């Protein structure tokens, strides 16, 4: 049974929507003590391994098994697909370090460690669709011609829709993060106990 198009939309939304809280908690669990970045780097490593499995091994296997999965290796396609991968990886890394930087900034100012962190997910998922939409207004690539730029002015529905969606996403995610912050959030794992000296 094949998945309908809207099923993939729902799965993508679930995946990206849960990414920020999951990666933050995972990095916290991998941290040895507050103020260090080892846990954040380990979480980036885990993301990279997951990307390798899902975005390298799975496509290679499907290309071998399906007749309709053979690509045409064009330079433009390879370059821009690679750039998309770079953007995805940079975004993942920035999410991870934004969480740590926000907590550190709050501690320096002597406020609740979650004071600034609660804005990270709302701002990211509010900025991303706005930037995506604005980019689509000026960049109109054609097959073999990626450098096709011109401004297409939309009707008033687009800016109003962007503002409403961005505001709604921000408020919903901010509310969720504020509730989590009020609970105190996940605590770093305690350092491993030192072995007792042998007689």
| Helix coverage percent | 55-70%
Tally the structural domains: 1
Encode the helix/strand succession as letters: HHHHH
Strand content: under 5%
Given the helix and strand composition, which structural class is it?
Answer: mainly alpha
| Integer-rounded radius of gyration | 21 Å
Shape: globular
The tally of strands reads: 0
Report how far apart the termini are. 65 Å
For the residues shown, what is the average pLDDT?
Answer: 82
Poorly predicted ranges (pLDDT <50, ≥5 residues)?
185-189
Describe the sheet with the most strands: none
Helix segment tally: 5
Task: Describe the secondary structure blueprint for this structure.
Layout (H helix, E strand, L loop, with lengths): L4 H25 L8 H28 L9 H34 L11 H19 L18 H27 L16
Helix pairs in contact: 1-2, 2-3, 4-5
Structural notes for this entry:
The protein is mostly helical and 199 residues long. It has one domain (10-183). 67% of the residues lie in helices and 0% in strands. The protein has helices at 5-29, 38-65, 75-108, 120-138, 157-183. Helix 1 (5-29) runs antiparallel to helix 2 (38-65), helix 2 (38-65) packs antiparallel against helix 3 and helix 4 (120-138) packs antiparallel against helix 5. The chain is globular. The relative contact order is 0.11. The model is unreliable at 185-189 (pLDDT under 50).
Entry keywords:
0% strand, 199 residues, globular, mainly alpha, single chain
Quick structural summary:
With 199 residues, the chain is mainly alpha-helical. Helices cover 67% and strands 0% of the residues.
């Amino acid at each position: 049974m094949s998945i309908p198009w809207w099923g993939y939309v729902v799965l993508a939304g679930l995946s990206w929507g849960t990414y920020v809280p999951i990666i933050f908690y995972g990095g916290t669990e991998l941290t040895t003590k507050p103020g260090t970045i080892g846990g954040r780097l380990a979480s980036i490593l885990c993301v990279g391994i997951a990307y390798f499995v899902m975005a390298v091994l799975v496509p290679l296997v499907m290309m071998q098994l399906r007749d309709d999965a053979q690509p045409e290796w064009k330079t433009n396609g390879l370059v821009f697909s690679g750039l998309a991968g770079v953007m995805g990886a940079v975004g993942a890394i920035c999410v991870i370090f934004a969480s740590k930087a926000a907590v550190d900034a709050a501690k320096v100012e002597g406020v609740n460690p979650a004071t600034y962190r609660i804005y990270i997910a709302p701002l990211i998922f509010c900025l991303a669709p706005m930037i995506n939409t604005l980019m689509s207004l000026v960049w109109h690539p054609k097959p073999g011609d990626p450098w096709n730029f011109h401004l297409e002015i939309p009707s008033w529905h687009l800016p109003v829709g962007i503002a409403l969606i961005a505001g709604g996403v921000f408020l919903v995610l901010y509310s969720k993060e504020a509730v989590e912050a009020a609970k105190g959030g996940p605590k770093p794992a305690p350092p491993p106990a030192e072995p007792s000296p042998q007689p």
